[in-house]
Structure of Carbamoyl-phosphate synthase large chain, chloroplastic-like:
Amino acid sequence: DELKIEQPKGGIAKSEADALAIAKEVGYPVVVRPSYVLGGRAMEIVYDDSRLITYLENAVEVDPERPVLVDKYLSDAIEIDVDTLTDSYGNVVIGGIMEHIEQAGVHSGDSACMLPTQTIPSSCLETIRTWTTKLAKKLNVCGLMNCQYAITTSGDVF
């Protein structure tokens, strides 16, 4: 919020009731995933309350110690991966901006990318460069950083 970087609407659920309330607020489909794992494990796109309940009962444990992230799924968005390197003086170098071939929601480790991007408007690339640099500086990164973005068909960057 402080950096004015847009992100899909969502929330953190500590119970089934929380997850259902968040999904109702942001609207289906939603992406659900545990907040406590890396690598996209147990991530799923769900389209209604019954599928969300099934996910919560079968795929993850949801409780105050193990919350689940529930975010609006951006249908038909293109996912972008950005790799950067920042030195101890705060110089940020963007090594690559990669365009996923699959639609957003396929984990980056399971997808193929194009380098350089082929279909991304220059205005979106400029937003991505600006936001990535802001993040690296605000987080005081020294070393490698990866950022992931989604671009909707209307050109909105998240």
Summary: The CA atoms of residues 29 and 47 lie 4 Å apart. The chain has three helices and eight strands.
